[in-house]
Amino acid sequence: MLLNPNSRLLFIGDSITDCGRKRPIGEGAFDRALGNGYVSIVDAALTAAYPDYAIGVVNMGISGNTIRDLKARWQTDVLAFQPDWLVILIGINDVWQQFSRPRQTQQHISAQQYAQIMNELIQQIKPTIQGIILMTPYFLEPNRRDPLREMMDHYGALVGEAASRHGAILVDTQAAFNSLFAHMHPMSLSVDRIHLNLSGHMVLARELLNSIEYQWNRSAENWLDNAG
Question: I need a labelling partner for 184 at 20 to 30 A (CA). Which of 52, 97, 117, 119 fits?
Answer without folding.
Answer: 97
